[in-house]
Amino acid sequence: MARRTSLVTGGTGGLGTAVVRALLARGDRVWVPWIVADERDRLAATVDAGSALTLVEADVTDPRRLDALAGRLGDEAGGLDVLCNLVGGFTMAPLGDTTDDDWERMMALNARSVFAATRAMAPLLASSGRGRVVNVAAAPAVHGGGGGMVAYTASKGAVVALTRALADELGDDGVSVNAVAPTTIDTGANRRAMPDADRSRWVTPEEIASLLVWLTGDDARVVTGNVVVLGR
Ligand SMILES: NC(=O)c1ccc[n+]([C@@H]2O[C@H](COP(=O)([O-])OP(=O)(O)OC[C@H]3O[C@@H](n4cnc5c(N)ncnc54)[C@H](OP(=O)(O)O)[C@@H]3O)[C@@H](O)[C@H]2O)c1
User: Fold this and answer.
1) Is the CB of 14 under 6 A from ligand 1?
2) pLDDT tens profile 11-21
3) Which atom of ligand 1 is nearest to the CA of 38?
4) Does the active-site annotation cover 205?
5) How close is the Cα of 1 to the center of ligand 1, in Å?
6) How confident is the model at residue 1 (pLDDT cuts 50, 70, 90)?
7) pLDDT, tens digit, 9 for 90 and up, residues 124-142
8) Which of 20, 86, 112 maximizes ligand 1 atoms within 8 Å of its Cβ, making it the mutation to test the pocket?
9) Pocket residue to mutate for ligand 1, from 12, 192, 230, most atoms within 8 A of Cβ
10) Which residue segment(s) compose the domain that 100 sits in?
11) How many domains in the chain?
12) How far is the CA of 86 from the centre of ligand 1 (A)?
């Protein structure tokens, strides 16, 4: 099988770094959009991938940037096989303290980013013949427990619904669409924010990355429209 080209939005983040590393280990050419130069440099130094990693300045909530990125993928990489939609954010507040801005920000970062990136990349993925999309939802959006973080949970609920709708729509083009829905991920940021938490219940970035590699590989050809909860 020819090498895959994969696009990992949020590839500079806590989960993203592990996903980029795992896809590179499979032999993929990996493209990562970035918005903060320090994070771009940290990823490049961490994974040390040489020419297999392409870093592109692009805000994935901006459709013009996404269209330009799709153009570059078509011209320079010859297309796109895998889209991992990892960009996302978190906010926590009681309902009465949740502002309209909180709501809009969660919807933009968590839901619109998935919608906009998938819309921009869908033609390339359809041409691939083995197109795959994996989104990142969150466990409370699937099995409850989202009290105190309603804007976040609602935006991740939109990712769950988007995953199923996109699987229906893109299935005719041979593109599969699935989502992972982690509980708390064992990232450096979470360790710093919750130093006394019981981390045995968390899921590691590497465990999620390993599932993403499988979901975007040949063995998952007929797996689509699923949301896999990870963590306890
Ligand atoms: N952490 C958890 O416990 C947890 C649990 C369940 C689900 N999730 C989900 O898992 C995903 C990854 O989480 P994480 O903990 O790895 O988050 P993270 O470390 O904050 O990573 C998010 C990444 O997205 C990038 N990003 C943000 N806005 C962007 C934009 N507009 N355009 C391009 N890139 C942008 C960030 O770049 P910069 O760093 O440069 O700003 C960062 O690299 C998210 O969707 C999150 O909601 C996380």
Assistant:
1) yes
2) 999 999 999 99
3) 40
4) no
5) 31
6) low
7) 999 999 999 999 999 999 9
8) 86
9) 12
10) 5-230
11) 1
12) 6
Banded model confidence at residue 173, pLDDT cuts 50, 70, 90? very high
Tokens 């459709």, residue? 63
Whether the CB of 54 sits within 6 Å of ligand 1: no
Q: In one letter, which amino acid is 24?
A: L
Judge contact between 203 and 184, C-beta under 8 A. yes
Q: Record the tokens describing residue 187, joined without a space.
A: 């990232």
Q: Which two tokens stand for residue 183?
A: 């509980």
Percent of the chain with pLDDT over 70: 100
Distances (CA, A) of 169 to 56, 166, 204: 28, 5, 31
Q: Residue 73 Cα, ligand 1 centroid: separation in angstroms?
A: 22
Contacts of residue 159, Cβ cutoff 8 Å, sequence gap at least 6: 110, 111, 114, 135, 136, 137, 138, 141, 179
